[in-house]
Specification:
By secondary structure, the protein is mainly α. Helices cover 45% and strands 0% of the residues. The N and C termini lie far apart (36 Å).
């Protein structure tokens, strides 16, 4: 497990909450399914990088294309809004977007079986 001084733990309550007024809430599922520089982040060392990689680093070998200017701008906004300091934080935010629907399902199940 990578230990990094900038890594932070995100409380589950933040993942479950949705703010309809938030610019990022509408993109959370979209982001978790599409935008991460997979080919660029090919070592643990790269998780220590302290800036968003350039747009061309988001090239997808699977899709044979790079992300759009709009998608890159969204990634930049997420970097700033979430207080990301390094790629390991960006990865944590990206992974947390995958967790959000799962946590909602668990909460709904808990309510059913109370």
């Amino acid at each position: 497990m990578l230990r990094h001084s900038h890594a932070r733990r995100v409380p589950w309550s933040i993942l479950i909450e949705e703010d309809p007024a938030s610019d990022t809430s509408k993109h959370s599922v979209w982001w978790s399914l599409s935008v991460f520089p997979y080919q660029c982040v090919d070592s643990l060392e790269k998780l220590k990088f302290e800036s968003l990689p350039p747009q061309e680093s988001f090239y997808s070998l699977l899709k044979q294309e790079c992300i759009s200017d709009e998608d890159y701008e969204f990634c930049h906004c997420m970097w700033v809004k979430e207080g990301v300091r390094a790629m390991c934080d960006f990865l944590a935010c990206y992974n947390n977007c995958d967790v959000k629907p799962f946590l909602k399902a668990i909460e709904a199940q808990v309510e059913i079986y109370k």
